[in-house]
Amino acid sequence: MVTRWFGGILLGAGGLVRAYSDSVSQALDGARFVTWHRKRELVVSVNMAQAGRAEHVVRGLGYSILDTTYSATGCCITVAVADSPDGLATARAAVQTAFAGEAKIVEGRAVWSQ
């Protein structure tokens, strides 16, 4: 942040430009850039018998977990997967294999994730 404590004109336009340009350069030099990717939410629902291990299994598959909710009947885990036909098919197959075909999978909205 650049703060002007003096309201005069001693720096002049060129001095102000240099002061602001230097602060922007320093901020960009210290910035950390992160790439975000478009992903698709998949909501994985499992029954109570699978709920205890569900989050661990999904993390083990390498997917980012966005949300987990538990209810009296089971567990719903929202994960972010690649937003492409291949990415969705791969994720569905991996989850169904991990839960022996007992998981219900519903496709959700598009999201941006790291």
Note down, in words, how this protein is organized:
40% of the residues lie in helices and 32% in strands. By secondary structure, it is an alpha+beta fold. The protein folds into 2 domains: 1-33; 37-113, 2-Layer Sandwich (Alpha-Beta Plaits). Strands 2-3-1-4 form a 4-stranded antiparallel beta sheet. β2 (64-70) and β3 form a beta hairpin. The longest helix is centred in the N-terminal third of the chain and has 19 residues, at 12-30. The chain is elongated and about 75 Å long. The protein starts with 11 loop residues before the first helix and ends with a strand. The model has no long low-confidence stretch (mean pLDDT 87).
Specify the CATH class of the largest domain: Alpha Beta
Structural class: alpha+beta
The separation of the N and C termini measures: 27 Å
Strand order across the largest sheet: 2-3-1-4
According to DSSP, the number of beta strands is 4
- Output the CATH topology of the largest domain: Alpha-Beta Plaits
Q: What do the pLDDT scores average to?
A: 87
Helix tally equals: 3
Which stretches are poorly predicted, pLDDT < 50 over at least 5 residues?
A: none
> What is the helical fraction, as a range of percent?
40-55%
Secondary-structure element string? HEHEEHE
Principal-axes shape call: elongated
* Major beta sheet summary: 4 strands, antiparallel
Rg? 24 Å
Number of domains: 2
Portion in strands: 25-35%
State the CATH architecture of the largest domain.
2-Layer Sandwich
